[in-house]
Amino acid sequence: MKASEIRKMSASELDAKLVELKDELFKLRFQQAINQLDNPMRISAVKKDIARVLTVRRDVELHGKDA
Prior knowledge:
By secondary structure, the chain is mainly alpha-helical. Helices cover about 75% and strands about 0% of the residues. It is built from 3 helices and no strands. It has helices spanning about 5, 10-35, 40-65. The longest helix is centred in the N-terminal third of the chain and has 23 residues, at about 10-35. The radius of gyration is 14 Å and the shape is elongated. The mean pLDDT is about 90.
């Protein structure tokens, strides 16, 4: 997911996306623990997406939606 896509989301959409990504990360880690994970690179991709969402949320908090 690109940062430009995330910036277009509203605050409630960002919160929903963050919950969805954290849930996905939990499931991926669980699959990794029981050796059923097909693509281990997906974990790092989801972590980066979580960081992007958190960064955009913080940016909106500090500068408003226009920044």
